[in-house]
Amino acid sequence: MQFTNAIFGAALCGMLASSVAAHMVITSPVPFGQSSLTNSPLINDGSDFPCKQRSGVYDVTLMNQMPVGVPQSLAFKGGATHGGGSCQVSVTLDKEPTQHSQWKVVHSIVGGCPANTTGNLSEDADGTGASVFEFSIPKGMPNGQYSLAWTWFNKIGNREMYMNCAPITVSGGANNNDVFNALPDMFVINIPSEQCASVEGEDFVFPSPGDSAETPFKTALGSKTIGSGCASVMAKGAGSGAAGTPAPASPTSGASSPSGYAAGSASTEATSAAPQMSTSGSAYSQASAGPAGGSAAVTITTMATVTGGAPTAAASSYAPPPADAPAPAAGSGSSSVSSPSSNTTTTSSGSCSNGAVSCSKPGCVVCIGSNQFGLCDINNCAVPQALADGTSCSGGVVAKRHMTHGRRRLAGRRSF
């Protein structure tokens, strides 16, 4: 499979706006109330937030076992991918979430979710051609039985928010909420869209994606919102703002935790509204396959994971919005920044913390020096990330020489 820049036209927008036959639902993790879960988005007025409230909404079909730090698959069923968009995986400590529940983000996918396509994959409500992503529960999360949510903000079509929830049991973690409390709140928009809406044709850049975030190599990033009620709408992910009390993890018959995953320690890093990207791990990785059961073929999608550290793989090209020149700012401990619009080098620190550099255009890529890049967040800060081998950042574009990826067929499920 060869990656090229996506081109969206007015005709495509019209086609997708009229296509409502086969939206998306998650198949991995196994959702709550699987038999009653529909593939439609949340009701525009938000009355079924969270988790598509309905009769039997929290029926447990299968408890999803999630030891901390162990890779989990995020897989989908359906064909109406609406040009992709941006997704988040979040957790609340409530076993049966309400509008007062506080959701915390464990993974963000900026663009290309649930599929990196210019339109709909198909009109098949049972289609399995969407991408399969990978996430994990952070080390140090409290042990117990909780609820996980997949949320999706589609790129093309009506301004909507999709939300499916699943029961999870976290093990190998901590007996306190320190790590949970330090995570960013889940992002909410488009319910109702009249009060606050994302912009059609853009892969929304979350203001606080968290330490674990990735972006595919074919995106049209944006962070614009429309409406006067965004402050109240976006606060819905925080609920009442009060974290629940962690309960002891309950073992499930037939389930076992992989060895080698000890309890994590609580994070000591302070959080803010700015994206907090980790400085360890892979700068580029592959989304891996592993929906529960079956022997269906799975397409491995090459992704760019914005988590810093040593690179392991990369895609062919990445063409986000125009370059953003970091704003110069003096101060001790400042970072060296090479402006993409000139050959001059400036220093930047300003009000940004944890090594982040100042920037002026949220949603834009910033080229930092000769071997780093960053994504400008809503607070005008960009966290330096290492470039993959063989790639460079110039004019706000992280690019690599021509490279193709084929399809990989996997049978059965992954085991860790």
Coarse structural class: mainly beta
Radius of gyration: 20 Å
Q: Which residues sit in consecutive blocks of at least 5 with pLDDT less than 50?
A: 1-21, 247-349, 401-416
Strand arrangement, largest sheet? Answer: 2-8-7-4-5-11-15-14
CATH topology of the largest domain: Coagulation Factor XIII, Chain A, domain 1
Order of helices and strands: HEEEEEEEEHEEEEEHEEEEEEEEEEEE
Q: Could you describe the 3D structure shown?
A:
It comes from Friedmanniomyces endolithicus. Residues 243-267, 326-354 have a biased composition (Low complexity). This is Chitin-binding type-4 domain-containing protein. By secondary structure, this protein is mostly beta strands. It has 2 domains: 1-252 and 270-315, Coagulation Factor XIII, Chain A, domain 1 (Distorted Sandwich); 317-400, no CATH class. The chain contains 3 helices and 25 strands. The protein has helices at 10-17, 178-182, 230-234; strands at 25-28, 64-67, 72-77, 85-92, 104-109, 133-135, 144-154, 162-171, 197-198, 203-204, 213-216, 221-222, 225-226, 285-286, 302-305, 317-318, 335-338, 345-348, 357-358, 365-368, 372-375, 381-382, 385-386, 391-394, 397-400. The strands form 8 sheets. An 8-stranded mixed β-sheet has the order 2-8-7-4-5-11-15-14, with no helix packed on it. Strands 1-3-6 form a 3-stranded antiparallel β-sheet, with no helix packed on it. 50% of the residues are buried. The model is unreliable at 1-21, 247-349 and 401-416 (pLDDT under 50).
